[in-house]
Every structure is written in structure tokens, then in C-alpha cells.
């Protein structure tokens, strides 16, 4: 803002609101807000109100009418948001060590969710999550959050990876190695049948591509861009088939 980089400032504020406040903090406070511990609930409410109020001050130069309307509907002191002091950095509200620790937890949660998404595992299907790390304190403090947001039935934080990881799905971040039993994530027989069907379909498409590219009339007469596109499609099918075969092998472990 001081350098009048208004686009950069607006982008950073937007990212903070959606990525940090909405995606993470609100989700993390829901168990406290819905819980029976009144003191914890009140504390969460106060922090949510404080952060939302400061957010409205941040966005006021960019969207004055909407931010003013929301601010007026919240508990507040003063007549108008437009005359409030713009937020300033306060060292006493900076907790770099805690932030670094929770960044590890967030990274782990994102990695597990991405892996589950790749495997088409629904959130309702929970699995035991084993976290091997030398940052045990940080991960142990975040177990309740990991359980909720990584869809874990339970979380074990250990010093080293299990002796046998056969039949386990592994997820790696820069601070942890995580393992989930494959059988708890998917119905192995149904997953095997699904992969086999996808493999058969991919092999059928590959044979069609091979036939098309073996046709000299097509290769010599079609535009180069079209031929190259067909060759790229063939290469992608070959890579897909290789990955599907590897997945079948892993299911058998």
C-alpha cells in the first residue's frame, strides 16, 4: 500500500481471506464453536470477530460500501469503518514458531487430501494415518486438526516409518512421511476391477492409435500438427497403461 502497488496489495488480502481465514481458520474452529467447552467457544468467537473486523479494515479501500455495511452489522465501537485506523503490524501478535509448526501440519493435510483425491477416495472413508517425522511436537499438537481435515480415523505420530509398508499408500512432504493402509482407503476387489476395466479401455484406444499411425496415407497426407497430436496421444496412452499396470501390481502387495 505504501508503494501504491494496489494490485499486489489486493491480491495478498484476497489470498489471506480465502486461503488462510476461510479455508483454514474457520474450518479449524468449527469443533470449538460446536463443542460444549463454553470458554473455548467464546475465545474462538472473539478471535473470529477480531480477525474479521481487521479484514474489513484491510479491504475497505478496495470495496468501501460492502465492507462498511458488514462492519456496521458487527459489534463495534465508533461511528464508521472509514474513520478507523488502518491495521498495522503488531509484534505481540506475531508467533513465527507456531506459524512454522502449523505450516508443517497444513502441508501434510494438503498432501494427504491430494493423494486421496487422486485415488477417488471419498471423505466419508477414513483411514489410520501414520506420520513418521522428527518434528513430533508440531504434528502431535495438530492431531485433532489432521484427523478432521485429512479424514483420518486415528493418527499415530512416530519417529520412523513402519518396518513393513507393504499394502500402504505413502505420502511425502519435506517434514514427514505418511502412510495409510490401502485396504482402509478402497475396496481392493472393486478397485482392482475398476483399474482392469480402465486398462482394457486404454489398451483398446492404444491399438487404434497404433493402427492410425501405421497408415502411411494418413502419416504422409495429414498436416504435421495433426500427426504430431496423434503421436502425443499414443504416448499418453502408453504412459497411462504403464501407470495402471503399476497400480494393479501395488494392489497385489
Main features:
alpha+beta; four-stranded mixed beta sheet; 253 residues
Explained architecture:
The structure is a single chain. This protein is an alpha+beta fold and 253 residues long. The chain has 10 helices and 4 strands. Helix content is 64%, strand content 9%. The mean pLDDT is 90.
Summarize model confidence as the mean pLDDT.
90
Strand content: 5-15%
State the end-to-end CA separation: 56 Å
Poorly predicted ranges (pLDDT <50, ≥5 residues)?
none
Outline the fold blueprint.
Elements (H helix, E strand, L loop, with lengths): L5 H28 L4 H22 L4 H10 L22 H23 L8 E6 L3 H6 L1 H7 L2 E7 L9 E5 L4 E5 H4 L2 H27 L1 H6 L2 H28 L2
Parallel strand pairs: 1-2
Antiparallel strand pairs: 1-4, 3-4
Helix pairs in contact: 1-2, 2-3, 8-10
Please summarize what this structure is.
This protein is α+β, with helices and mostly antiparallel strands. It has helices at 6-33, 38-59, 64-73, 96-118, 136-141, 143-149, 182-185, 188-214, 216-221, 224-251; strands at 127-132, 152-158, 168-172, 177-181.
Amino acid at each position: 500500500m505504501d508503494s501504491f502497488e494496489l494490485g499486489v496489495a489486493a491480491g495478498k488480502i484476497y489470498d489471506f481471506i480465502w486461503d488462510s481465514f476461510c479455508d483454514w481458520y474457520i474450518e479449524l474452529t468449527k469443533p470449538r464453536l460446536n463443542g460444549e467447552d463454553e470458554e473455548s467457544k467464546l475465545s474462538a468467537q472473539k478471535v473470529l470477530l477480531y480477525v474479521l473486523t481487521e479484514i474489513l479494515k484491510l479491504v475497505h479501500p478496495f470495496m468501501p460500501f460492502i465492507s462498511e455495511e458488514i462492519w456496521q452489522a458487527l459489534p463495534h465501537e465508533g461511528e464508521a469503518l472509514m474513520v478507523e485506523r488502518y491495521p498495522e503490524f503488531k509484534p505481540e501478535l506475531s508467533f513465527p514458531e507456531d506459524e512454522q509448526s502449523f505450516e508443517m501440519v497444513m502441508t501434510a493435510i494438503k498432501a494427504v487430501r491430494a493423494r486421496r483425491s487422486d485415488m477417488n477416495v471419498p471423505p466419508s472413508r477414513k483411514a489410520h494415518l501414520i506420520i513418521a517425522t522428527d518434528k513430533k511436537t508440531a504434528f502431535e499438537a495438530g492431531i485433532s486438526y489432521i484427523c478432521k481435515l485429512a479424514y483420518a480415523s486415528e493418527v499415530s505420530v512416530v519417529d520412523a516409518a513402519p518396518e513393513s509398508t507393504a499394502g500402504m499408500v505413502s505420502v511425502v512432504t519435506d517434514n514427514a512421511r505418511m502412510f495409510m493402509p490401502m485396504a482402509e482407503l478402497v475396496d481392493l476387489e472393486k478397485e482392482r476391477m475398476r483399474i482392469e476395466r480402465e486398462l482394457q479401455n486404454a489398451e483398446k484406444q492404444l491399438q487404434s492409435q497404433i493402427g492410425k499411425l501405421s497408415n502411411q496415407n494418413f502419416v504422409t497426407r495429414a498436416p504435421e500438427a495433426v500427426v504430431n497430436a496423434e503421436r502425443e496421444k499414443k504416448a499418453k496412452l502408453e504412459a497411462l497403461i504403464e501407470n495402471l499396470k503399476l497400480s494393479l501390481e501395488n494392489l497385489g502387495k
